[in-house]
Every structure is written in C-alpha cells, then in structure tokens.
Amino acid sequence: MIDAINLCKTFSGKQVLKGLNLMIDTGITQVIIGRSGCGKSVFLKHIIGIVRPDSGQVIIDGKDITKMTSKELNKLRLSFGMLFQAAALFDSLTVAENVGFNLIEHTDLDKITIYKRVKEALSLVGLYGAEDLMPSELSGGMQKRVGLARAICIRPKIILYDEPTTGVDPIMADAINDLIRMLHDRLEVTSVVVTHDMVSAYKIASDIAMLYDGRIIQRGSPEEIKNTNDPIVKQFISGASKGPITDGQHSDHKI
C-alpha cells in the first residue's frame, strides 16, 4: 500500500530524513516510534503529499505521489483520513460541520447523504447525538474523537494518526487505542500511527518501526521490539535517561 524509498528532507539546513526506507503492507497497523522532533510527523506529511522530499519516492498503491500534480494529489487525498495531534477542529463550525467538512468541500454528495455519513461516523466513535455541539463544549478526548470521526467520514483506504494519545489522560488514551483497533478491524483500512507512547504502540500495532537519526533503524512485531537487543531501541522503549541516545552516539543500523 505504501512504500517510502530513500526519502531525504532538509529544513533550514537541518537534515530531518536521511534516506528513510519503509514498506507498509495493505491492511496492517504500522506504528512508527521515535523521540519528539525526530521526523515522525514530517514522514506522515510526505505520505499524504503535504511535504515533498528533496529526493526519494513515496509510492501509494503503485503510484509515485512525488511526481503528481496538485490536482492529482487532491484526488488521492480523498482516500486518506488523518487524525491530527491537536484534533484541528474549526471553532466556528458545529461537530457535524467539522466531521462532514471534507465531503462538503471536495465531493458532489448531497446534504442528506453527507449528514447520514456524519451520523454514522460519530456513532462509530461513540458520539451519536453530538452533531449540534460546538468544539468549545467538548472535552479534549471528545475533540479527538470528533477528529477521528472526520477522518473516517470519507471512508478512506488509509488512516494516518499523528500522536493520537497526546494531551489526554491515561483512561481516555486507552479508549482511543480501543477505537483505533476497532476502526481498523471494522473498516479494513491500512493505518499508520506515529507516537512516542509505548503503551499505545504495543496495544495497536501489527508492526513497529523506530525512526532515529533520519532513518528506520529497526522494525518488527510488538513482541520483537519488546525483546530487542538494539541499545538505542532498548533505551527508547524503556524510557531510560542514560544510554546511546543521550550520549549522542550514532551507530550503523541495518534492518
């Protein structure tokens, strides 16, 4: 479904991605872990075509999106749903208008069909009946669920999650993890989740890949990552303050 090949990207003289390679199979939940600021969200933006690489390719369903026109990219994005880190709701729109926004703006569906899809999406995330509320009336966890309803309302093939459990308490974080698993199974989508929350990663992942120093340094099943011998991965997943990451040592890693 998704194949990133030798992705390189530099911002203001800092190279964030340094030849990243990652192939994501159709229908799995691919979790990408790594420290804050390591480039996880930048990678997501490459997948959806918001950011173009300095070099390398992003192949989605057999098509190289780095060579697409803006019109072609906009059409492709209708097959993506995305949950942003801060939910990114429009304050002046109701819940229903937020959830149906992409359908209203980018499709020719009539209002009745859109409203039906909105209600279905809200029902899936446990917010049936919340259509007329405003974002200011919602808790942080509810806002995340509205953002998730918006992501699934377009019935995407791929859902991208940017730090889905950030900013919510542990109980709500677990509820969001359950939602991600349920939606993956119910909708049969390919999911890509970036996070530094290892509790979440272990619960939802089919496969975990660690991004470090601009590259994927290791990937495997949750069990394989838990039992890693790689000192960098081991330090990150254990949350240890001392180790090769703290010391700034960069090793040669091969998957």
What does this structure look like?
This protein folds into two domains: 1-74 and 158-166 and 188-255, P-loop containing nucleotide triphosphate hydrolases (Rossmann fold), CATH 3.40.50.300; 80-155, no CATH class. 38% of the residues lie in helices and 24% in strands. It is built from eleven helices and ten strands. The strands form two sheets. It has a six-stranded mixed sheet with strand order 6-7-8-3-9-10, with helices on both faces.
Element layout with pairings:
Layout: E1 2-11, E2 14-24, E3 29-33, H1 40-47, E4 55-60, E5 63-64, H2 70-77, E6 80-83, H3 95-99, H4 101-106, H5 111-124, H6 140-153, E7 158-162, H7 170-187, E8 190-195, H8 198-204, E9 207-212, E10 215-220, H9 222-226, H10 231-238, H11 244-247
Parallel strand pairs: 3-8, 3-9, 6-7, 7-8
Antiparallel strand pairs: 1-2, 1-4, 4-5, 9-10
Helix pairs in contact: 5-6, 6-7
Give a quick rundown of the structure.
By secondary structure, the protein is α/β, with parallel strands linked by helices.
Report the portion of residues in β strands: 15-25%
Q: Distance between the terminal alpha carbons, to the nearest Å?
A: 20 Å
| Total strands | 10
Poorly predicted spans = 248-255
> CATH homologous superfamily of the largest domain, by name?
P-loop containing nucleotide triphosphate hydrolases
Spatial sequence of strands, sheet with the most strands: 6-7-8-3-9-10
Q: What does the radius of gyration come to?
A: 18 Å
Task: Quickly give the CATH architecture of the largest domain.
Answer: 3-Layer(aba) Sandwich
How many DSSP H or I helices?
11
| Biggest sheet features | 6 strands, mixed
Supply the CATH class of the largest domain: Alpha Beta
Alpha-beta content class: alpha/beta
Domain module tally: 2
Shape call = globular
Q: Helicity range of the residues?
A: 25-40%
- Average pLDDT reading: 89
Question: What string, H for helix and E for strand, traces the elements in order?
Answer: EEEHEEHEHHHHEHEHEEHHH
